[in-house]
Amino acid sequence: MTTTTTLKTTKSEEIFAAAQNLMPGGVNSPVRAFKSVGGQPIVFDRVKGAYIWDVDNNQYIDYVGTWGPAICGHAHPEVLSALKDVLEKGTSFGAPCYLENVLAEMVINAVPSIEMVRFVNSGTEACMAVLRLIRAFTGRDKVIKFEGCYHGHADMFLVKAGSGVATLGLPDSPGVPKSTTANTLTAPFNDLEAVKALFAEHPDQISGVILEPVVGNAGFIPPDAGFLEGLRVITQEHGALLVFDEVMTGFRIAYGGAQEKFGITPDLTTLGKIIGGGLPVGAYGGRKEIMEMVAPAGPMYQAGTLSGNPLAMTAGIKTLELLQRPGTYEQLDRVTQKLAQGMIQVAKEAGHAACGGFISAMFGFFFTEGPVHNYEDAKKSDLAKFARFHRGMLERGVYLAPSQFEAGFTSLAHTDEDIDRTLAAAREVMSSL
Ligand code: HOZ
Predict the structure, then answer these.
(1) Residue nearest to atom 4 of ligand 1 (CA)
(2) Pairing of strands 184-187, 142-146
(3) Catalytic residue among 160, 273, 318, 338
(4) How does pLDDT run along the chain (433 residues), one tens digit per residue?
(5) Which of 164, 258, 221, 257 is nearest to 363 (CA)?
(6) How buried is residue 330: exposed, middle or buried, by Cβ count under 10 Å (0-12/13-18/19+)?
């Protein structure tokens, strides 16, 4: 694995060396580490539009977008200005605030499955709560998730999980009691027969099925034709609930998320990232009769000191307003298509096995002939080659997620020129791998 660099990153190295004695692995989330691609994480100083600058003043075109929220481009002036205005009134009330109504209405109007919503502080929190809710509503304990899908770091979901768990090759996490995960059943993504078999094996015990309708945490894996439809039918047949984890895809692959894009309405949805416009937010919502189980309307307890705080609500409201402007998703689609298709073409021209795809502002590619339908297929990608590619792109001013098992994100700030520069860098790197 190449770990040498022509980048001057002296300050980054100093800061990261100190960080390693202060925080586990020097980071506050494992996905930020460069464990699977080699070298050290870059320490950043500032962001703007499609760009990110490190503490040594190197500039990169950014395709991580703070892992999704920055769909309008980093530090959008209108988001910053709205935040400055609200900041004067204080940062948290711990009591109802009008801005919660505004964002709730925007989410309810946009996302087909959501009639009522509860704001929390992260995607992890949203998924934890939605699991409790489907169990409370159905009176059943088991849940089906898919291999390589990631629904945050709560105990019950750390089974064959994607994202950092896949990147670090951790099968399951110590500290998670077997009794907790005994109720988590898994199936390969895009495999309806495996889901049917689980329902047959555990009659009347499965509360629901949760999935990323387009996987972003095992790399980018879209659903096969008929897969989401099939899950909708199977869950209904068995009195179980269908949950779309749209933390990544919500407001990204369409304004109304994957459920709008594919025309399949789940019972419940989790959101995060974009609806916080770069501040910590998550949300879960769905049919009113289910959501009214949540305290204080109903008996299922879930709470949060900072939930619905005015700053996060403001950044979310302004971000959604920007996304509502005409031409937004056409622009995201066009730029991302150019990038994703260009990347595969460049890889193939250089003689590499490669496959990949995109939907709107989400993309990915693998160093394997493909096709990639599930996590097992994704693992066939040449990870050592990806690591060398990642380093080469970094040295040429392109910041990709430091893992093969993460989708990439574009934004409204990415220009044709950014994509051309990225593809020119990729061409150079691919020919040297
Ligand atoms: N969920 C994101 C990556 N798949 C990023 C959140 C994190 O784990 O830091």
Answers:
(1) 163
(2) parallel
(3) 273
(4) 344 457 899 999 999 999 999 999 999 999 999 989 998 999 999 999 999 999 999 999 999 999 999 999 999 999 999 999 999 999 999 999 999 999 999 999 999 999 999 999 999 999 999 999 999 999 999 999 999 999 999 999 998 888 888 888 776 788 998 888 999 999 999 999 999 999 999 999 999 999 999 999 999 999 999 999 999 999 999 999 999 999 999 999 999 999 999 999 999 999 999 999 999 999 999 999 999 999 999 999 999 999 999 999 999 999 999 999 999 999 999 999 999 999 999 999 999 999 999 999 999 999 999 999 999 999 999 999 999 999 999 999 999 999 999 999 999 999 999 999 999 999 999 999 9
(5) 221
(6) exposed
Spacing, Cα 269 to ligand 1 middle (Å): 18
Active site residue 150: yes
Amino acid making up residue 390:
H
Q: Which atom belonging to ligand 1 lies closest to the Cα atom of 216?
A: 4
CATH architecture of 78-323: 3-Layer(aba) Sandwich (3.40)
Question: Ligand 1 atom 9: the closest Cα is on which residue?
Answer: 29
Q: Would you kindly state where each structural domain of the chain is located, as residue ranges?
A: 37-67+327-432, 78-323
CA–CA distance, 76 with 80 (Å, rounded to integer): 6
Residue 406 alpha carbon to ligand 1 centre in Å: 9
- Residue ranges around ligand 1 (CB below 6 Å): 29, 31, 67, 150, 163-164, 217, 406
Q: Whose CA is nearest to atom 2 of ligand 1?
A: 67
> Among 311, 305, 335, 301, which residue's Cα sits nearest to residue 423?
335
Active site residue 245: yes
User: How far does the centroid of ligand 1 lie from the alpha carbon of residue 248, in Å?
Assistant: 10
Under 8 Å between Cβ of 404 and 377:
no
Instruction: Give how far Cα 336 sits from Cα of 191, 281, 303, 382, Å.
Output: 28, 26, 38, 23
Which pTM value belongs to this model?
Answer: 0.97
Farthest-apart Cα atoms in the chain, separation: 60
Architecture of domain 37-67+327-432 in this structure: Alpha-Beta Complex (3.90)
